[in-house]
Amino acid sequence: MTATPRGWVRRRLLLGAGQVAAVPVLVFVLTEALPGDAAVVAAGDDPDPARIAALRAALRLDRPAVERFADWAGELTHGELGRSLVGGRPVADHLTEALAPTLLLAALTLTLLVPAAVGLGLLAARREGGALDRAVSTVTLAVYAVPEFALGVLLTAVFALRLGWLPPTAVGGIGRQPAALVLPVVVLLARPVCSTARLVRAGLLDAMAAPYAVHALRCGVPPNRVRLGHALPNALAPVVQHLARTAEWLLCGVIVAEALFVVPGLGTVLLDAVAARDVPVVQGLAVLFGTVTVLLNLAADLAARRLAPRTEVAV
Amino acid sequence: MSGPELAAVDGLRVRVGARVLVDGVSLRVLPGRVTALVGPSGSGKTTTALALLGAYPEGARVSGTVSLAGAGGAPIGHVPQHPGTVLNPARRVGVLLRDLARVHGGGPEAVRRALRDAELSEVDGLLRRYPHQLSGGQQQRLVLAQALLTGARVIVADEPTTGQDPATAHRLAALFRRLAARGTGLLLLSHDLALVRESADEVVLLADGRAVRTGPPDEVLCAPARPELPPVRPALRVRPVMVPTQAAPVRLDVTGLTARHPGGAVVLREVGLSLRAGECLALTGRTGSGKTTLGRCLAGLHPRHEGTVLLDGEPLPRSVRRRGRQRLAAVQYVFQDARSAFADHRPVLDQVARAAVRLRGRTPPAAAAEAAALLAELGLDPAKAARPPGGLSGGELQRAALARSLIVGPAVLVCDEITAGLDADTRASILAHLADRRDRAGLALLFVSHDPAAVDALADRVATLADGRLHPASAAHPFGRQGAAPPG
Amino acid sequence: SAPGGTAAADRAPAAATPRRGGRLRALFAGGGADETLDPHRVNLFADAARAKALHDKLADWGPDLAAVPRLATGWEPGPGLDVWTVRLREAAFHDGRPVTAADVLYSYRRIADPKRAFRARASLEPIDLAASRAPDPRTVEFRLNRPCAEFPNILAAFGAYIVPEGTEDFRAPVGSGPFSFVSFEPGRALLLRRFDGYWDGAPHVDELEILAAAEESARANALLAGQAEYAHELAPATARAHASGGRIGIVRLRNSAMQGFVMKTDRPPFDDPRVRQAFFHLVDRQELVDGALSGAGEIGNDLFGKGSQYYPAGLPQRTRDLDRARALLREAGAEGLRITLDTSPVAAGLVEAAGILKDQAARAGLTIEVRVGSKDTYWKDILDGGVLASFRSGAMPIESHISQRLLSTSTTNATHWRRPDFDDLYTQAQSTADPVARTALYERMQRRLFEEGGLLVWGFADWIVGHAPRLRGVAADAPANTLDWARFDKVWLA
Amino acid sequence: MRRYALGLALVAVPLLLALGGPLLVGGPEPRGVSFTAGGGHWLGTDFAGRDVLRQVLLGGRPVVLVAVAATVLGYALALPLALAAALTGRSWVEELLLRPLDVLIAVPALLLVLLVATAVEPGPAGLAVLVGVAAVPDIARVAHAAAVAAASRPVVEALRLHGESWWRIAFGQVARTIRRTLAADAGTRLVGALYLVATAAFLGVGVGPDTADWAVMVDRNRAGLFLQPWAVVVPALLVAGLSTGTNLLFDAALARPGGRAPGAGRRTPGAAA
Ligand SMILES: Nc1ncnc2c1ncn2[C@@H]1O[C@H](COP(=O)(O)OP(=O)(O)OP(=O)(O)O)[C@@H](O)[C@H]1O
Ligand SMILES: Nc1ncnc2c1ncn2[C@@H]1O[C@H](COP(=O)(O)OP(=O)(O)OP(=O)(O)O)[C@@H](O)[C@H]1O
Ligand SMILES: [Mg+2]
Ligand SMILES: [Mg+2]
Hints:
heterotetramer; A: mainly alpha; 13 helices; 0% strand; D: mainly alpha; MetI-like fold; 1% strand; elongated; binds adenosine-5'-triphosphate; binds magnesium ion
């Protein structure tokens, strides 16, 4: 890469701003493409045409799409995210309300995910094809193959209902029973742990086989230190990218877990908003997600560059 | 001052398939003594040495005993033949060294000492660099520094001076003596007989995997019938008079070439040179003076440079990517580190042949045949070349790398230290081959080398790189000015 | 019949002496972060439950969907059935103000305001609110646009709640209901306190908390683990799994949701009554109930409102008769027909039912192609689109069903059943004072629908409510949306 | 080959069922009550009162096809992109190739599938395409991150110098060097794709919520987990077998002989420790 890191970051931030701008447009187009609009959905099982028309007028949906988008964008430039079509509450309130639980879940999951995944990866990579490797791989993969909803139902049945160790849901708000976070976090962990650990393992096996790892061992560096200090960094670049995607998945709403354990976070808001054709809310989420993604990707790319310094490839 | 042996190999026999790599070799590493292992390329030096480290070729059947009794469990310092491959590309030099220091209970001071001993203290900003930001010789010395940091009582140095200029090599020899004086036992694998004479107490001469002679240097090296000594002045210096160099057209014309590295460090300043067809310009200079960089610039592998490079009067694109097949074929470069220029998984022979397929439009079979022939000419048994690079010795790989470039019939060839790892005979045959090409096919050679003998043997002119500038040097004392030049 | 009476009757089994106190936590499928407490905006069950805890209607529906007086003590029609005088009982709002005729008129006018497009507006349509008056604070005189014998139904209409005059802000609503407002987090929880001044007797529990949990398994788990005492709308499977365990009580609210298919009677192939009849005969209703409702319900007879007032229980129960169906199809020249059936996961069992009908029709030689549509816009889509579609409806009086769905003027006439003579029968019924004669008229209308209507009613789903064993007095004979459904002022925690 | 045994054993059953299953079933039978065991149904009935065994036999093909198709498509699109980005020395080309994907990323995969699938009724094939495309940015990022180091090795320079074609350099050298990482990613992505389909179905887009599809079955039958576990357990086990098996096969195929790590072509005790 020719660019110096700082210049590179600046350019990336500019590009990122462009992306954040592009996302709502994309999302707006997509939401417009959806059949029906907020009025139709609001009418529900009483789709009296006159009533729908009235609703449409009330929601000012009778104006051309471009105009509506322009208005929204105008408000955005004043830092305004607009108001929800359905309840009329400010979109910002929606987001901030839902953000708290989502952030909590994401933070907890990630802090557990990284050590767990790396640890498992290290274990599996100790001896390729060895009993430990097979055991770790098989178990994690088997768990990986169980979808969140099934896993959630299962864990709840055992730990909440049979044994009664944990509250099964966070109904009424997490504040009341923090223990209710355990199950969702576990469910959220189950699959990323596997996919991440697999990447760690793959990278480690390659790195450990590389001459420099062998040399480090010959120089009397203890094997574990070689794994952690010499091989792992080379293995991490793709892992970091994968972690960024996972983090984003966590931050942009984990619908199943939220529904199962009644943790109304961004995912729920997103789902409701799309279902209700509540365009302003969807747009608000788009902006939020866009920003989160851009920042995460930037961080990931920075880390990746640090971990995989490039030789001067001939341009 | 020889105490109980630190490490010993007894009747070592290493076989891969039908092939016997090492056949009943015995040697001992004694404290305070430097044991040199010499012998023609492919004679089994590296294999023997690695056996000492407990490493063997894939699927090898091994007999004999290796005892590290004296080493007392401490690691054995190892300076491998291809230093480039054993340096972690993702860690900064500083991290690599400090990590070792910490493991072996040393601090920053230990690191500094090791760097000083390994002649690296002058390289500015070394610790912040990544290994790939070092020159070949610097990498080699870096690995040596690592070996020193381990504080090993036994050090195995495999061709530790291939990348070093004579001055540095000389200092390294002194270092080895110092180490020995401190009671370390060294096993030195080298083709550099000067080095061996200077530093070795005992020499084991290998041939075809067998230890043919053992004893003090003078005895072993000066005894009659010494197949592996260089002919004092190869006959091939005699050149047909009918091709006066001056008359030949200018192939390569370089003016105002300035090259820098990402850090912004300028390595070459306003370098200018011109090469006529059938001419050989030898390029010497302290390690780290920018020889490789220059070669890479010409080859289009280092586009970050200004200045013009004309090939037959035509400007040459800066990057290989923008050079068409003709141009790629016309200007070729032989990598300093032959090992890392070959893909691990494919037979070397195929990789050599592939070049002919791509750049000369040969059919695969034809190319394979041609490659085999060429390798044979360079003294490398094609059967060996049918193995992936891991299965070839250092010197064999170097010849393979040369063949890979020669096979495309280049007009200009940049050779980067291609003789460093070769015994005198092999070297002689290679030089002969190059000279032949030069004279018959009018091949223009830029011959980067630290090896005076090779330079005398081949070069028409000699130029020396120092602090980024090119200094024409009288062919008489090509290395004369080096003491003066600041080390790179 | 007095509401208390019916309630008492149903609660016979659990008839221990009510205990006072405690907090009752009730779980409903919430409406997300956009929920409001505006009782006139009710749409979901959760909204209805919240509204009826905070507010009252003039009347409400008894188990048979007949109007039961609430805030109204009674109603008197004028001779032409187009003027109705309603007497209000002595009741007070949570802030102590009495409930007056003015409040009633204000609330109804607010509902009927065209700009707001409230759901209940359609139900109030017969009332001429401009002309209606309040002769004294406890009397309302409603003038109607046309005779309306079923006027009380209007007073019980879904969402027709009475709020204090002038109320616009419902962030901390004041009503006349059994519970008074404490706090509200949209999409999460609503906390209410007992209203001691409630005219129908103060509730037994001190506090009522209505919690939102969209996912059924979440509601079930929360109930099982004692995070709540009442869970609305459980899946039949859950009910069966835990009915015997004794960890929770299961209450099945019969006839809560009509399940069926709508056939567009004005376009091929269903413009031919024989094809419609063929469908009536080819369905195996029990298989549908078993498969789509997993047995939690009872079979229907192609008429709406089983078990409610005016339902012609005398009609023979239809059963599958494939020969008859094939014959009809042959007559209609509709053998081997290919039909697209619209459905959507908008409600439990719809898609399953569609799949089953597909198989059943195949046995009669028909090819049905199931098209799963978006659940968000489904009802709008099938109102005028397609020819055959899954359909369901919550409980409402048969009269409302007809007036909203089966008249030429009906706004949500999904079967496109437009028959002037049928309309006339309806009008006639509305202007018939004598109950007996009116019942006869309803019977005639429904026979007609039974013979050639466009609505294939294959079953009525139970609404399954789960409750903690210590929660007593949960009414069983209370279809969803009737008075005793989700009624928390008469239950208590033992 | 011993090291393939476990993987093969795990993959065999689901794969055979997926391919052969549909051939073994007859026409639809009358429904029973949902979530009942016995009654002529070996594995009981599912949420719609259908015979679970029959659903299992039918439900493999869509799963395998959609998942495999989606993953393959995702890679077919993403890998060349990633490699091109890694191999080009010009950073702006790199940005040009990769940044647009980030816009795609910023729309969460589920939302994307949700929106597009509701807008245009795709059907299984379309859904596979959709899921595949939705995966492109992720794959590209992981592959690129892994490829960058491999692409800047001297070997690649040598190949260029000897006029090797882009495809050979990209796939023969770079992709080959990072094949483990790619395999690990693809192996898990397979399952991811599969359940994205299921979740989409659960949300009412793509395949019908009552289609015979293992992933969908696991979801829709979970209500009856305690009445009739087979309806969930069997398909879940099959999917698990499929994913675990495939990945173990990948591992086995990529394993170095004896799982030993040759140090630059040399065997070393150290590396085996
Ligand atoms: N894995 C292998 N399989 C078969 N033959 C091998 C293998 N590794 C090395 N050899 C052969 O063994 C011989 C000795 O190799 P070795 O590297 O020890 O030679 P060397 O003395 O170090 O030569 P050089 O001076 O060129 O480094 C060479 O001819 C090489 O081709
Ligand atoms: N990527 C890089 N970034 C910064 N500095 C570099 C980089 N590569 C090489 N250098 C420095 O540039 C100088 C010239 O390197 P070069 O490899 O051309 O030396 P050389 O003459 O070939 O040395 P040797 O004889 O040891 O091979 C060295 O001092 C080296 O440290
Ligand atoms: Mg060697
Ligand atoms: Mg060099």
